[in-house]
Specification:
- By secondary structure, the protein is an alpha/beta fold.
- The protein folds into two domains: 195 residues, Quinone Oxidoreductase, Chain A, domain 1 (Alpha-Beta Complex), CATH 3.90.180.10; 129 residues, Rossmann fold (3-Layer(aba) Sandwich).
- It has ten helices and 17 strands.
- Strands 3, 4, 5, 8, 9, 16 and 17 form a seven-stranded mixed beta sheet that branches. A six-stranded parallel beta sheet has the order 12-11-10-13-14-15. It has a two-stranded antiparallel ribbon with strand order 1-2.
- Strand 6 and strand 7 form a beta hairpin.
- The relative contact order is 0.16.
Length: 354
């Protein structure tokens, strides 16, 4: 089959498009999915360059091409362990089930499915969580295998490319909103609002009845306003002066970096902060007095509960959220797709089709 092999930590030269990769066979309880489309996420870039290593302190904006050294990246897996190579990346996948392993009903063959990227394995009676396309092979291929429970049947008129834009980004966004208990009437500020997770969070927060303040570049204001944002503030601009101290209920952050202090400053007393990314830098200044004197709640968000993805499928089927696809590339153009993604000139998702 056609697939992109990730050969090791580093730059784009570590991605190799091949047409002779063996088609995987579904194990017990698993299904074989023919991928119709996949999409690019920050996690694909971050794992390739070794950014998750604790030895790395800079953001991801300028490191997509070169990556970090092998020694630096020793602990850069989601689980804190070194990856095994070669690996097929890709956290997002949409396609159809074409074969099933033992214990899975043959009637599932032919189902159109979205792949839930958080995979829970029972290892000697203990639940072990791994991430699709990181600790196991993912969707940057013509075929992939996943546990049957992670292949969610979906009924939708959307194209494969549109459906593939949802899983990772929208589940991450919904997880942050759920953890921070966003509800109708809340004032919510969303950083990185034109990216995959950010634009998903805008739609999902509006769906909950919240009023959204989006932070993005002026060139993308129209696109983000169309998703329901009530107000847009330019990326990098001062937040306290236009919004005021203690002016928002919730901050949904995927940027981190130097603006973290202001994000806590604009939170009301008892406010909630949720984070699932740090593209501007993972190391921030935190004054513990701000945290405890304002009774703030800070939520780190990675592994979402299964109900999050089931709810997401329902939102899609009922047309309550819509895809935002910026550009579609052939799988063979993986490097061009990741360059486009890393340039951050787009709004929404970059999609690959095998």
């Amino acid at each position: 089959m056609k697939a992109v092999l990730w050969k090791g930590y580093g730059g784009y030269d570590q991605l190799e498009f091949r047409e002779d990769v063996p088609v995987p066979r579904p194990e017990d309880g698993s299904v074989l999915v023919q991928i119709g489309a996949a999409s690019v996420n920050n996690t694909d870039i971050n794992t390739r360059i070794g950014w998750y290593s604790r030895a790395v302190s800079e953001g991801t904006t300028d490191t997509g091409a070169d990556g970090f050294s092998e020694s630096t990246a020793e602990d850069s897996g989601w689980t804190g362990t070194k990856h095994q190579f070669p690996r097929i990346q890709g956290a997002d996948g949409c396609g159809r089930i074409v074969a099933v392993g033992r214990g899975v009903a043959a009637s599932r063959i032919g189902e159109r499915v979205l792949i839930e990227p958080v995979i829970r394995l029972n290892v000697r009676g203990t639940v072990q969580v791994i991430y699709f396309g990181s600790e196991c092979n993912g969707s940057f291929a013509e075929y992939t295998c996943v546990p049957s429970a992670n292949a969610h049947a979906i009924s939708s008129d959307l194209s494969d490319a549109e459906l593939a834009s949802f899983p990772c980004a929208y589940a991450a966004a919904e997880h942050m909103l759920e953890r921070s208990q966003v509800a109708a009437g809340d004032e919510v500020l969303i950083t990185g609002a034109s990216g995959g997770v950010g634009s998903a969070a805008v739609q999902l927060a509006v769906r909950r009845g919240a009023r959204v303040i989006a932070v993005t570049s002026p060139a993308k204001e129209e696109a983000i306003t169309a998703l329901g944002a009530s107000r847009v503030i330019a990326r990098g601009a001062d937040l306290v002066e236009p919004l005021g101290h203690e002016s928002v209920d919730v901050v949904i952050d995927v940027v981190g970096g130097g603006q973290f202090v202001q994000l806590l400053e604009i939170l009301r007393r008892g406010g909630r902060y949720a984070v699932a990314g740090a593209i501007s830098g993972p190391i921030v200044n935190l004054d513990l007095r701000t945290l405890y004197l304002k009774d703030l709640r800070l939520h780190g968000c990675t592994v979402f509960e299964p109900i999050v993805f089931r709810n997401l499928v329902g939102y899609i089927e009922r047309g309550e959220i819509r895809p935002l696809v910026a550009k579609i590339f052939a799988l063979s153009a993986i490097v061009a797709a990741q360059r486009e993604f890393s340039a951050k000139n787009h709004a929404g998702k970059i999609v690959l089709q095998p």
